[in-house]
């Protein structure tokens, strides 16, 4: 008994041996659904009812913003349907009276019930017209609500500081909130259905109370078990989804790895495919067993609910029988009451389910709202002082920066100066802070202490959108947009309209002309392998397109600016690399400071000034000759790379085999 009537418990599912083998235990995701664990377990009728006004209010505000006329139309038609249902019941009551309590011949009685029948038919027509009107207006409203919620979500996501995107807690919220717009859309449907259920319940209850006061509690008694059943099934499903989400995701992860392009070679060559497939099957089988358990439990719960409801129904009919026999109720009223009880119990059952669904969806809508609030607090501030058209230099003074989830600073007390017209190189080992320095220089991250100045102006007082206007960035993992080759270049400054011939100087500059010439439709070719007719470029070819994009961005601005290039040649062959470094150096102009980050020491030797980073601190700086003469870290790095090209003294012998020969 306790199994059915006690609280729904969350049972930790057994970890399959396949999960143990692959992931060392259950695969715990730090995202999404698990956030709702506690709210989900609090899915009781009372908590759902308590939170109802707030959550319905949020959904209605969105709907009001989306299309107030459609919203009003839905409300009017739903209220109209409720009134029509009540009037319909009264018409049926009149028919019953004429039939059962009327006097005269059968012919006369049939004539007497005609007006009631006609009225009931007319009301049914009005009711279905109102229902159709409501469906069409809700159909118009729902996509608009989803669009507005999606636009709010995307607009907030693109306008926050980069620091927020690097913050794991905020990233998690970004992931969770993406379910909000769909949930907001579904909430509108659930709201309409709940409103419909509520109005029809109120009107039916009103009619029943008029017919006989005892019928109202009877109606509640019939509907209560069904409401309990619906709530119980929903709770069990929710708790099961919570408990199993990690496992389902783990098997989905394996499924997607098996079909992903990036894994395709190892899947075949190392026979990873058959290995993972067998693990996938084992994990899927244990999830299927849970589905089966859930279905049996649902069937049993619903059966108990129907049985209890049936008992209540039998008690109601028994009471009505007694009322008729005792002369407290006429046969006609009893006939109407039977119909009203059936309609009312159906409405109440549906209402409980709709409230349940509203509650479930509202969890996601609430996350969406939480995301919008937090994003608003972390948005890049609009406005500020204009960036001076001419600045002699851009300078960092004692800048420190530490990532939100790190204990040690990625940059510490860094000071450097980038004069316009110069090429500055930054070198350092992996993790020394080069990319972080570039994010600070571009204005995407703000120094936590120290200053970044454009001429005399501190960046904190400047209009950030104007700062971004003045920065060109080319990184190793620059975005390969799934759009045409022309757009892939133009997107460097998308607001600037350009025809193909306008882009040609950028293509020529980057040495990308042979790449474009190979494309079936030249600059108009689509560069995205996943679409029909599209082309995939090699890593080196993409880097040339990236360089063309950077040139286009630089060429479309005359004000003083900074060009940041982070490992631009990693995928280029040696000849292309030498050419690319030459091109980057040529981009230094009187109105531009170029900053180059690379591990290729040959590329930095001609820079005007070189800075060496080590564990977030600047440890050396000077020209190539100065730094070689100093015999410090730079000289050691340079010598190590140069040694690779020195003639080989001898080829080392192969190491002893690590796996014993089974023979
Ligand atoms: N988004 C981030 N969140 C937290 N820590 C980060 C983040 N990005 C970098 N770090 C940490 O900051 C330090 C500096 O990283 P950074 O990427 O600036 O080094 P790098 O010199 O560019 O390295 P590489 O040469 O390997 O590209 C590293 O310890 C790194 O782990």
Automatic annotation (TrEMBL):
Top-level lineage group: Bacteria
Question: Gene Ontology cellular component?
Answer: plasma membrane
Q: InterPro entries attached here?
A: AAA+_ATPase, ABC1_TM_dom, ABC1_TM_sf, ABC_transporter-like_ATP-bd, P-loop_NTPase, Type_1_exporter
Q: Name one GO molecular function term.
A: ABC-type oligopeptide transporter activity
Q: Which SUPFAM superfamilies match?
A: ABC transporter transmembrane region (SSF90123), P-loop containing nucleoside triphosphate hydrolases (SSF52540)
What keywords appear on the UniProt entry?
A: ATP-binding, Membrane, Nucleotide-binding, Transmembrane, Transmembrane helix
Q: Where in the cell is it found?
A: Cell membrane
Domain ABC transporter, by residue range, is 394-640
Q: Which Pfam families match?
A: ABC_tran
Q: Which residues form the ABC transmembrane type-1 domain?
A: 72-360
Spans through the membrane: 70-92, 112-133, 187-208, 303-325, 331-353
Q: What is this protein called?
A: Uncharacterized protein
The organism's lineage is: Bacteria, Bacillati, Actinomycetota, Actinomycetes, Kitasatosporales
């Amino acid at each position: 008994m306790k199994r059915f009537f006690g609280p729904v418990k969350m049972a930790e599912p057994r970890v399959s041996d396949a999960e143990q083998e692959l992931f060392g235990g259950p695969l715990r995701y730090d995202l999404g659904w698990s956030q709702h664990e506690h709210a989900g377990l609090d899915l009781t009728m009372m908590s759902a009812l308590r939170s109802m006004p707030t959550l319905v209010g949020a959904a209605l505000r969105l709907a009001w913003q989306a299309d107030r006329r459609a919203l009003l139309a839905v409300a009017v038609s739903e209220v109209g349907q409720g009134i029509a249902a009540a009037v319909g019941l009264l018409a049926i009551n009149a028919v019953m009276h004429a039939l059962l309590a009327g006097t005269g011949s059968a012919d006369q009685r049939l004539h007497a019930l005609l007006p009631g029948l006609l009225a009931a038919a007319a009301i049914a027509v009005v009711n279905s017209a109102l229902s159709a009107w409501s469906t069409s207006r809700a159909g118009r409203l729902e996509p608009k609500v989803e669009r507005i919620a999606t636009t709010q979500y995307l607009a907030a996501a693109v306008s926050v500081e980069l620091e927020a995107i690097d913050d794991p807690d905020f990233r998690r919220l970004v992931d969770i909130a993406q379910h909000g717009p769909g949930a907001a859309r579904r909430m509108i449907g659930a709201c309409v259905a709940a409103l419909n259920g509520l109005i029809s319940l109120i009107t039916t209850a009103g009619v029943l109370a008029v017919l006989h006061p005892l019928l109202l509690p009877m109606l509640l008694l019939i509907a209560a078990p069904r409401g309990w059943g619906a709530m119980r099934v929903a709770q069990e499903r929710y708790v099961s989804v919570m408990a199993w989400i990690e496992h389902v995701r783990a098997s989905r992860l394996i499924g997607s790895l098996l079909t992903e392009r990036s894994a395709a070679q190892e899947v075949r060559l190392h026979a990873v495919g058959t290995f993972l497939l067998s693990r996938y099957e084992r994990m899927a089988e244990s999830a299927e067993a849970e589905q089966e358990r859930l279905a049996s439990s649902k069937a049993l719960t619903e059966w108990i609910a129907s049985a209890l409801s049936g008992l209540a129904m039998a008690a109601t009919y028994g009471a009505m029988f007694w009322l008729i026999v005792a002369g407290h109720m006429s046969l006609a009223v009893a006939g109407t009451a039977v119909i009203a009880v059936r309609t009312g119990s159906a409405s109440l059952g549906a209402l409980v389910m709709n409230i349940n669904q509203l509650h479930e969806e509202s969890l996601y809508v609430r996350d969406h709202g939480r995301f919008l609030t937090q994003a608003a607090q972390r948005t890049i501030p609009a406005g500020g002082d204009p960036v001076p058209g001419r600045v002699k230099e851009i300078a960092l003074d004692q800048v420190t920066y530490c990532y939100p989830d790190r204990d040690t600073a990625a940059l510490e007390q860094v000071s450097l100066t980038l004069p316009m017209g110069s090429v500055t190189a930054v070198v350092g080992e992996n993790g020394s802070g080069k990319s972080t320095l570039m994010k600070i220089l571009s204005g995407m991250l703000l120094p936590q202490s120290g200053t970044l100045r454009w001429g005399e102006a501190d960046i904190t007082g400047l209009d950030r959108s104007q700062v971004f206007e003045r920065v060109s960035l080319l990184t190793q993992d620059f975005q390969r947009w799934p759009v045409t080759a022309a757009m892939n270049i133009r997107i460097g400054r998308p607001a600037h309209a350009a025809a193909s011939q306008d882009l040609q100087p950028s293509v020529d500059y980057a040495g990308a002309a042979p790449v474009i010439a190979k494309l079936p439709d030249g600059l108009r070719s689509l560069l995205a392998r996943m679409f029909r007719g599209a082309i995939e470029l090699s890593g080196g070819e993409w880097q040339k397109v990236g360089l063309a994009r950077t040139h286009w961005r630089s060429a479309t601005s005359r004000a003083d600016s900074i060009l940041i290039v982070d490992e631009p040649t990693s995928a280029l062959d040696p000849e292309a690399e030498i050419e690319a470094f030459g091109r980057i150096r040529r981009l230094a102009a009187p109105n531009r400071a170029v900053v180059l980050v690379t591990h290729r020491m040959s590329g930095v030797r001609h820079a005007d000034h070189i800075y060496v980073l080590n564990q977030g601190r600047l440890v050396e700086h000077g020209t190539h000759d100065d730094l070689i003469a100093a015999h410090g870290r730079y000289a050691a790095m340079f010598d190590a790379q140069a040694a690779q090209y020195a003639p080989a003294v001898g080829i080392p012998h192969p190491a002893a085999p690590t796996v014993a020969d089974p023979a």
